[in-house]
Amino acid sequence: MAYDEGLAERIREHLGADPGITEKRMFGGLAFMYRGNMAVGVSDDDLMVRVGPDATDAALARPGTRVFDMTGRPMRGWILVAASALAEDEALGAWIDEGYAFAAGLPPK
Predict the structure, then answer these.
(1) Comparing C-alpha atoms, which of 92, 91, 38 is closest to residue 68?
(2) How many CA atoms lie within 13 A of 95 on its CB side?
(3) Which pTM does this prediction carry?
(4) Taking phi first (over 0 means left), then psi (-120 to 50 degrees means alpha), and beta for anything else, what does residue 16 get?
(5) CA atoms of 76 and 12, how far apart (whole Å)
(6) What angle do CA 57, 100, 69 make, to 5 degrees?
(7) Residues 68-109: pLDDT tens digits?
(8) Going by C-beta distance under 8 Å and a sequence separation of 6 or more, which residues neighbour residue 5?
(9) Any idea where the TfoX N-terminal domain is (predicted)?
(10) Contacts 24+ apart (CB under 8 A), 68-74
(11) What is residue 10's three-state secondary structure?
């Protein structure tokens, strides 16, 4: 499965040269990990964001979002954001920052 390399590049630009960030192919796309924990990723042309179980409902109330469900079992704490909701760098940056903040609150792997 291919992923939107342009979106991946926009994520790289936003994250900058943070030494805690690594990239890993997963879910048929590309994941951006912070200290070994996934923060955000790209699947097809959607942004995957790890918001955590407590923030899932609030995240799903925002435009362009849906449940992350690859196997028929929704993954609570993870959402997908449609490309149409990411046209502005500010919107993309807010989602990246949210995923990064959640991953930063987890113990390193």
Answers:
(1) 38
(2) 32
(3) 0.94
(4) left
(5) 25
(6) 45
(7) 987 788 888 999 999 999 999 999 999 999 999 999 999 998
(8) none
(9) 19-103
(10) 70/27
(11) helix
